[in-house]
Design a protein that fits this description.
Blueprint (H helix, E strand, L loop, with lengths): L1 E6 L8 H16 L4 E6 L10 H5 L3 H16 L2 E5 L9 H10 L6 E4 L2 E4 L5 E7 L11 H12 L4 E7 L6 H13 L10
Parallel strand pairs: 1-2, 1-3, 3-6, 6-7
Antiparallel strand pairs: 4-5
Length: 192
Amino acid sequence: MKLLHLDSSALGTGSVTRELTAAIVARWQDKLPQLQVEYRDLDSDPLPHLTGQSLAQTNPEEAADAARTMEQFLAADVLVIGAPMYNFSIPSTLKAWIDRVAVAGKTFRYTENGPEGLAGGKKIIIASGRGGIHTGSPTDFQEAYLRQVFGFLGVTDIEFVRAEGVAYSPQHRSDAIAGALASIPEPVRLAA
């Protein structure tokens, strides 16, 4: 089984989502010793934002990186994604990654009955860090967006490990992280 671990926070060692994704991946590795893990830090190793030149594949290095990104995504059985809330949504580096894996004919297609996701059968665990409290609020564009985009690709097994209110106070941060760590789902062996 293959797990793809993505971090997108710009906060480095002070990142809540990096702490959470590391704990999630460690739990999966402990329970499934044969698990193959690939890692990409979208902050230190970002994909360029999608442009007309990207689509035309005028830059061979960018095209090769986009192809590797798609291959990693398609090969993964499980994705652990660090997705902090930035300005009510996700980091632009994570959006640039999504733009490389949401590709017509590869991960979705349009049919006479509407869109059809082609990347199903995966499990996604999203580590969400939020300075404020947004669950159930109209300000939560992050979770709704991620559920929609991955659902569009055919992935419906999505869980969130959420730490909210981390900017309120050191105690809020500590409590939110502890609650998020306690909510990490147990690893499961996926059917091949």
